Prior knowledge:
Layout: H1 3-30, H2 35-44, H3 47-93, H4 98-106
Amino acid sequence: MTKQNKTTTKKTAPKKAATKTAKTTVKATSAVASKKDIEKTAVKMCMPEKKALDEAKSHISALITGEDLRTAILIVSVVINLFFLIAWVTLQVTNAYDGEVASFLFNRTLIR
Length: 112
């Protein structure tokens, strides 16, 4: 091979490799679904699939509501229990409040 053939061979080889990478890049970007494609798929869903999806959404919201209610009840319970624990510890540590507590509980009069 002459010197000129070697240089042209070297120049054409990188161009072929570059075109191959460009093709793979195009293929990779076309595989990502766009928002329009997702909307088209949602429109094409048949009625049983839509019904099942709506039932699943309502079931999930019911589970979340139940969990929130349980959490709220537990928080209220902890606050009430802390109040009674603090009151009990206060009565055990000091006897300054014994008279007030006893009069509050036992010396109540009924107003007629």
